[in-house]
Amino acid sequence: MVRFIHTSDWQLGMTRWFLEENEGEAQSRFDEDRLAAIDRIGALAVAEGAEFIVVAGDVFDSNTLPERVFQRAVDRISQLPVPVYLLPGNHDALDASSIYLRPAFNSLKKAGIHVVRDSEPIQVREGVEIVGVPVRGKYSAEDIVGQVVSQLEATEDIRIVLAHGQVEGFGQDAGATIDIDEIRSAQSRGALDYVALGDSHSTAQLDGAGRVWFSGAHETTAYDDKEHDSGNVLVVDVDKPRSTVSDGTSTVTVTPTPVGAWHFHAISKDVMSFSDVEDFFAELDALPGKTTTAVKYSLRGSVNLAEISEFEARMAVQASRFAALYRRQSGSDLTVVAEVHDIERLGLSGYPLKAAHELSARSQGHNDDGTSIAEEDRQAAADALRLLARLVGEKE
Q: Which residues belong to any copy of the Calcineurin-like phosphoesterase domain (predicted)?
């Protein structure tokens, strides 16, 4: 039997534009927490008695990382307490400019850091081997995983295939997809026992037997309307009697285990009345770990001037609590409908009062004479009306 940890898609050096406001304060914390998650993986390996760690591609976000970012990442990886096997993926492909050609890797093997550079079997210890399929470019027109797997012969050893790429029906296909049927065929003839995949950032089992998995990213990288279950690693147990060669009857147990600290939430809500806005704020209040949480939201509906002023004041407070909080550019349309008494409450007179009425009409999609206006002009009028109400409120 062997126990190991399957992880992938660390993409160390990754940045997120929505974390870069306020001089990148949230981005800096995100960077450090992504490194700290590696420490947690190491601690988990010790606690679970894992013999080694496999990282199934995209260890680094690109082959052109600044030396400062690269060296900090390498220093953290070199401190892992068990051997680790790093597979080049599409973000850090094993090409002429590969990050794995940097001199730092020359001495890392002594620290138990192994770069999988070809598909020759790697003996981890007696009875356990890894067959890797390193990615050599951003795009592959052929199923390189299927090609390697189809050539594998039956073995008494526990054999783990380490690969990176998409299967049909998961995510956006960047080139040829991995043929799951080819993997099933290899498993049935006793040629492999577990396939550790990377590329999808969400944890997912890909076959009925539970032998082919995406580990998902070790730390959240995208919003939960796209990335459904990330921040995990997989603790994998494989038990295979030495007499089992041709019938593929090894036993595999996979336990997803959270190690991430960040969460990215997408919130979408229809606003029929201000009580729906109150529900939105209640949902924000209920989110834990706000300093390590980003939220993008879309609200669709209408509010009056008083309500939009209250909404924006409360949003300013909420924004200070989260790593990021912002309105989606698409699918979000919270329209300001200025009622007569709203404008009267502003206490305006003369030209400002006339301008407020004109903006009110245009914010509803038409001029004073009833002729329609373009959507961008309607939105500009609504924004101007909000600003006018806010300025009057600040003056008071």
A: 3-202
Instruction: Please give the model's pTM, rounded to 2 decimal places.
Output: 0.88
Does residue 299 have a pLDDT over 80?
yes
Q: Which amino acid is at 213?
A: W
Q: Where does 69-157 show beta strands of DSSP type E?
A: 84-86, 113-115, 122-125, 128-132
DSSP string, 290-315: GGGEEEEEEEEEEE-HHHHHHHHHHH
Least confident of 203-207, 230-234, 273-277, 349-353: 349-353
| pLDDT for the residue numbered 17 | 95
Query: What is the reported pLDDT for 331?
Result: 72
The answer for residues whose C-beta is within 8 angstroms of residue 338's C-beta and 6 or more apart is 304, 305, 356, 359, 360, 363, 385
Which of the pair, 381 or 34, is modelled with greater confidence?
34
Return d(Cα 165, Cα 173) in angstroms, integer.
Answer: 8
Closest CA relative to residue 247, chosen from 314, 321, 189, 306 = 189
* Of 251, 250, 245, 252, residue with least CA distance to 153: 245
Assign residue 13 a region (left: φ > 0; alpha: ψ between -120 and 50; beta: otherwise): left
> pLDDT tier at 354 (50, 70, 90 boundaries)?
confident
- The fold of 2-258 is Purple Acid Phosphatase; chain A, domain 2 (3.60.21)
Domains of the chain, by residue range, sit at 2-258, 263-395
* E strands, the chain, in order: 2-7, 53-55, 84-86, 113-115, 122-125, 128-132, 158-164, 194-198, 204-205, 212-214, 232-239, 251-258, 263-271, 293-303, 324-327, 333-336
